[in-house]
Write a structure and sequence with these properties.
Belongs to the glycosyl hydrolase 1 family. The chain is α/β, with parallel strands linked by helices. The protein has a single domain, classed as Alpha-Beta Barrel (TIM Barrel). The protein is about 40% helix and about 15% strand. The protein contains 15 helices and 15 strands. The strands form four sheets. It has an eight-stranded parallel barrel. A hairpin with a 6-residue loop joins strand 13 (about 445-450) and strand 14. It starts with 14 loop residues before the first strand and ends in a 6-residue tail after the last strand.
């Protein structure tokens, strides 16, 4: 394994980020909004998945979540108090189009219009993500992402949202982490809709790529020329367990399935040949039609990068289930790679069991810069879950998160010094919330939420991050 962490480096001077660097926090609609049956919202695949016994810890669901739908004004005021310059939210597709087809529900669009106006009134830049995993259940009933029609419907949905918000939202993301949608949703089955078909996962990956292309076209047609359009990928920093040739090939194979399956079509207009060869026993990729790749490779203004933990692999069958950073499953999210083993690297871990390794973010940013010189980047998610609690005095002390943030922001700053064009950082997440298959058991928030009362309590790390965001300066020591 390569890379060095800030702990290995002598403390230097404070680090100043570039003028105009965007400091924000992010959420996802299903994780925070609640109001699942209000104002015409239709069911999503996560509503269904949560009601499938054994899929979500404790049988939790997002029916209420943290009630952001009703409390957004207070939440925006809290963002302003914390000095955030931007808020990355996602639009709930079934809130806008309950079945994924037809005209928009006015009440659904109105919520996002009100949220956007509230952000602007507080001087906070709204950053809209069109899709963060909440596919309308009606589209899943028709086949979901493995079917081409879902991509076509997504383009129509993008046009509806752009028409409603395009005059006020300057930054847009089409999809958040399509790898998770495809390979956790249709491969390992640990995410909605919970299917376990490797060919369906590959088909879903392509149609998510196509959906991005259709959305870019719709956004460009509706938005002013100054608007920025992007996609967010959870790019994997894949590292070999040893220096052996077999482990190097395991890295190549997983890199193709985690990264290049998306970046190849996006930037080169082609799927990598080794990916096609690796999966040839499963599919001939005939679902890729003429014109698809030209659509997918339409220019974007920047690439969103989400990073949490590096991926360590070897060639062999001896590894740890769930060591790839996801819930253990009897089914692999890596089609055609059953002989690749995953390993949990040593070191401090978060409450998710993920190792804290800022060097992975630094190395990942340098790699993207090397492979795609001149491409602007934005850290659209980075953060950590810890076992937070409120003290009798009403405070939440989370020094581990402050150390985590300091190390990762230092990694971003070092990448900028190395010439990487990084333009912003969004902490995951603004609020403790529904953490997908983990239910309410994992707290990623800057702000602690008492789920019984919905009381919000900014954690010590939120105050720390607030000072960094206000000044654009990362102190030499983490002060945690």
């Amino acid at each position: 394994m390569t890379g060095d962490t800030p702990e290995n480096q002598p403390a230097g001077p404070d680090r100043r980020f570039p003028t105009g660097f965007l400091w924000g926090a992010a959420t996802a609609a299903y994780q925070v909004e609640g109001a699942a049956a209000e104002d015409g919202r239709g069911p999503s695949i996560w509503d269904t998945f949560c009601r499938t016994p054994g899929k979500v810890r404790n049988g939790d669901n997002g029916d209420t979540a943290v009630d952001h739908y009703h409390r957004y004004r207070d939440d925006v005021a809290l963002m302003a108090e914390l000095g955030l310059g931007a808020y990355r939210f996602s639009v709930s597709w079934p809130r806008v189009q309950p079945t994924g087809r037809g005209p928009a529900v006015p009440a659904g669009l109105d919520f996002y219009q009100r949220l956007t106006d509230e952000l602007l009134a507080h001087g906070i830049t709204p950053v809209a993500t069109l899709y963060h995993w909440d596919l309308p259940q009606a589209l899943q009933d028709a086949g979901g992402w493995p079917e081409r029609d879902t991509a076509e419907r997504f383009g129509e949905y993008a046009a509806l949202v752009a028409e409603a918000l395009g005059d006020r939202v300057p930054i847009w993301t089409t999809l958040n982490e399509p790898w998770c949608s495809a390979f956790l949703g249709y491969g390992s089955g640990v995410h909605a809709p919970g299917h376990t078909d490797p060919v369906a996962a590959l088909r879903a990956a392509h149609h998510l790529n196509l959906a991005h292309g259709r959305a870019v076209s719709a956004l460009r047609a509706a938005l002013p020329a100054t608007a920025q359009v992007s996609i967010t990928h959870n790019l994997h920093e894949v590292r070999p367990l040893t220096d052996s040739a077999g482990d190097a090939d395991a890295v190549r194979r997983i890199d193709a399935l985690s990264n290049r399956v998306f970046t190849g079509p996006l930037f080169d207009g082609a799927y990598p040949q080794d990916l096609l060869s690796d999966t040839a026993a499963l599919t001939d990729w005939a679902f890729v039609q003429d014109g698809d790749l030209a659509c997918v490779s339409a220019p974007i203004d920047f690439l969103g990068v989400n990073y949490y933990v590096p991926t360590v692999v070897s060639s062999g069958l001896t590894g740890e289930r769930g060591a790839d950073g996801h819930l253990p499953s009897d089914h692999s999210p890596w089609p055609g790679s059953d002989h690749v083993a995953f390993h949990r690297p040593p070191g401090e871990q978060t409450a998710m069991g993920w190792v804290v390794d800022p060097s992975g973010l630094h190395d990942l940013l340098r790699r993207v810069h090397r492979d795609r010189p001149g491409l602007p980047l934005m850290i659209t998610e980075n953060g950590a879950a810890f076992d937070d609690y409120v003290t009798p005095e009403g405070a939440v002390h989370d020094p581990e998160r402050i150390r985590y943030l300091h190390g990762h922001l230092d990694a971003v700053h070092r990448a900028i010094e190395d010439g990487v064009d990084v333009r912003g950082y969004f902490q995951w997440s603004l609020l403790d919330n529904f953490e997908w298959a983990y239910g309410y058991g994992k707290r990623f928030g800057m702000v602690y939420v008492d789920y019984l009362t919905q009381r919000r309590v900014p954690k010590a790390s939120a105050r720390w991050y607030s000072e960094v965001a206000r000044t654009g300066v990362l102190p030499a020591v983490d002060q945690g």
